[in-house]
Amino acid sequence: MISFNIPTHTDKTTEYILDVFKEKHASGDGKYTKLCNKWLIEKLKCAQALLVHSGTAALELAAILADLKPNDEIIMPSYTFCSTANAFVLQGAVPVFVDIRPDTLNIDETKIEEAITPKTKAIAVVHYAGVACEMDTIMNIAKRHNLLVIEDAAQAFDSYYKGKPLGTIGDMGCFSFHETKNVMSGEGGLFVTNNLEYAERAEIIREKGTNRSKFFRGQVDKYTWVDKGSSYLPSDVVAAYLYSVLEISDKIQQKRKKVWNTYYSAFEQLEKENKIRRPIIPDYASNNAHMFYLLFNDLETRTEFISYLKQNDIYAPFHYIPLHSAPAGKKYCRTNGTMSVTNKVSDTLVRLPLYFDITDEDLKTVIYKILEFWSKR
């Protein structure tokens, strides 16, 4: 069976995890958490990078920092994971969905302004497949309407917009280190910001609303509850796993881009024959090879395709069910305008196996079986 994803680990992973116990500190903010935070601040060139236990936790932390009031509105795409919306729903806010672009599958920046109301407080953008949204336009809209911009960069590690790291352009950025991501720790996430006020308060929210981190730095003589918050720290065991993967991230990226480019070349003729559409990377965006997908012309063909690959022991799943059509989406959110592109993409997108340890032989098999599918139709 060729899996859609296999988690990455290195020779150092077990060594670092065992070292956690030698350090006698397995809870949050231990040796490896600090190493990861330092590494990520240098990588992203940001003021603050705080490791958290999931991408969901990073989004929830951002939603608390946004100081939302009940029924405040957050504009976002519907073609995303539920955590993007749920983080704001937990604060009593209302996600407002707008359609996505047909090329990048990111939020359509031309539809944001018409969704703004007096209740709008923020725009939550999702960099789908690690490809940047049109950030200059979005930041300009936010500035004119005094809105926050929160980047859901769950899929966007080592991806850039006009040379700027994704997750660092808006007011806050949220990353995931789930096992399906380019760098991973099984579960895990990251909150980043360049706003020093947010940076200080984020540290407090992350530590159950206490100033515990200041206490351990010797900035206060005791720590206490000073703000709302939750327990967003990951175990240092998780951080040790992540650090072992961060150390080989350049190697991981090189391999993933090689696989991505191999897929892209292999299916050029199918696209010319209008059987599928390959991903589109705009000039302003880089490609971090997080995902390689194919877009089909209709749901029926996609269903046959997924079934055919499964019969040949290849797992290639579709992706999101749009949030605007989900039961909770209908209950807690609202939709602005039509969702024609979102609905079409949801019905026609397939993700192909792409991970660091995929073998050349398995890659060739996937490509061969995809071409075989079309030759038999």
Strand proportion: 5-15%
Poorly predicted ranges? none
- CATH structural fold name of the largest domain: Aspartate Aminotransferase, domain 2
CATH architecture of the largest domain: 3-Layer(aba) Sandwich
Nutshell version of this structure?
Helices cover 40% and strands 13% of the residues.
What this model shows, in words?
This protein has 377 residues and is of the alpha/beta class. The chain has 14 helices and twelve strands.
Secondary structure layout:
Layout (H helix, E strand, L loop, with lengths): L10 H13 L7 H14 L3 E5 L2 H11 L7 E5 L4 H8 L4 E5 L21 E7 L8 H11 L2 E5 L7 E2 L2 E2 L6 E5 L12 E5 L2 H11 L5 H5 L19 H11 L2 H18 L1 H5 L20 E3 L3 H13 L15 H6 L1 E2 L4 H9 E3 L8 H16 L2
Helix pairs in contact: 1-8, 2-8, 3-4, 3-6
Offer a few descriptive terms.
two-stranded antiparallel ribbon, alpha/beta, single chain, 13% strand, eight-stranded mixed sheet, Aspartate Aminotransferase, domain 1, Aspartate Aminotransferase, domain 2, 14 helices, 377 residues
